[in-house]
Amino acid sequence: MRQAGRSLPEYRRLRGDGDILEAIAKPELAAALTLQPVRRYGVDAAILFSDIVVPLAAIGVGVKVVAGRGPVIDRPFRAPEDLRRLRPLEPEADLAHVLETVRIVAGECEVPLIGFAGAPFTLASYLVEGGPSKNFARTKALMHAEPELWHRIVDRLADIALASLRAQVEAGASAVQLFDSWAGSLSPADYAAFALPASRKVLEGTGDLGVPRIHFGVGTGELLGLMSEAGADVVGVDWRVTLHAARARIGAGKAVQGNLDPAVCLAPVGVVIEETTKVLFDAGGAPGHIFNLGHGVLPETDPGVLAQVVETVHAWQPGTSASEEAGR
After folding, report:
1. What is the 3-state secondary structure (H, E, C) of the chain?
2. pLDDT tens sequence across 206-262
3. What's the CA gap between 117 and 119, in Å, rounded?
4. What dihedral do alpha carbons 28, 30, 35, 36 form, nearest 10°?
5. 4-261+285-297 CATH pick, 3.90.640.10, 3.40.50.620, 3.20.20.210, 3.40.640.10
6. Over the stretch 33-89, which tens digit does the pLDDT of each residue have?
7. Given CA atoms 53, 54, 57, 58 in this order, what sign does their dihedral have?
8. Mean pLDDT of the chain
9. Average pLDDT, stretch 5-33?
10. Residues linked to residue 73 through DSSP beta bridges, in sequence order
11. Residue 325 pLDDT more than 60?
């Protein structure tokens, strides 16, 4: 479960209150933080402790991750000359600390490690807006007013994300995930024109590595059909769309990932188990469902409740009917 460590007391003790980018820069620490949820819950994969803006920071784009707000860019992109700040990523030099973390985890962990990168649209929105946004007004204005500049920006970001993902796999990651956190702010037409081509470049560019590729966005229910065309093997689904409906939109040949609402995990444990079971039923008998939350774990979540979620999923028998489950 993404960001599962945030709710753990051992995470808070080890992580402290420092800058997350400073923690990521320490491979032994980042590896320990990656492994904590695996060891606590017995989940089926580890997710690298990192952040989608790490490659941007590594190439010299001034970026800070502000607690309670998110990534903030020192000098937002406003003109064509800002493209000079997006130099090619040299993973072995720029991301040496991240790749060492991957090697440590891959060597110590008994389950697969998922590496990840930020999708070009989401990273571009941070660069243009200067930080998180509610309406992405500057981003959308640039897309439509200067489409050539926009495509140059996301194309360079695609190259950066692709280089990062390939290096993570070469270092030992068993799967990769492309996070397009803010793609849900786009209409289907704008997504197809301004976001999909760059994401496709990243996902298709990892196709020869022989590892599963996951594509996830928030609020992307209306975009799932388009996202399925980007080249991933698995399409992540947040809690706003049922998995049954998502499968119909995504089409055959793709697995789905999701999609318990993270806020449900704050309810009494019996309610959480019931809602977890509903997700499992909704996924249906079709192969290819990765149970997950519909987004990251909320920091205030009781770790014991998450342990019950994992236990419920591991005990699940796909052939069980709803009536049989209710009678247990």
Report:
1. CCCHHHHCHHHHHHHCCCCHHHHHCCHHHHHHHHHHHHHHHCCCCEECCCCCCHHHHHCCCCEEEECCCEEEECCCCCCHHHHHHCCCCCHHHHCHHHHHHHHHHHHHCCCCEEEEEECHHHHHHHHHHCCCCCCCHHHHHHHHHCHHHHHHHHHHHHHHHHHHHHHHHHHCCCEEEEEECCHHHCCHHHHHHHCHHHHHHHHHHCHHHCCCEEEEECCCHHHHHHHCCCCCCEEECCCCCCHHHHHHHHCCCCEEEEEECHHHHHCCHHHHHHHHHHHHHHHCCCCCEEEEECCCCCCCCCHHHHHHHHHHHHHCCCCCCHHHHHCC
2. 999 999 999 999 999 999 999 999 999 999 999 999 999 999 999 999 999 999 999
3. 6
4. 110
5. 3.20.20.210
6. 999 999 999 999 999 999 999 999 999 999 999 887 889 999 999 899 999 999 999
7. negative
8. 93
9. 91
10. 63
11. no
Kind of pairing between the strands at 46-47 and 213-217:
unpaired
Q: Any idea which residues carry the catalytic annotation?
A: 2, 6, 15, 51, 126
Is the Cβ–Cβ distance between 312 and 273 less than 8 Å? yes
Integer Cα distance of 250 and 302 in angstroms = 33
Query: For a pLDDT cut of 70, what percent of the chain falls above it?
Result: 96
% of the chain with per-residue pLDDT over 90: 88
What global pTM score does this model have? 0.94
Q: How far apart are CA 309 and CA 291, in angstroms?
A: 10
User: Residue 290 pairs with which residues in a beta bridge?
Assistant: 257
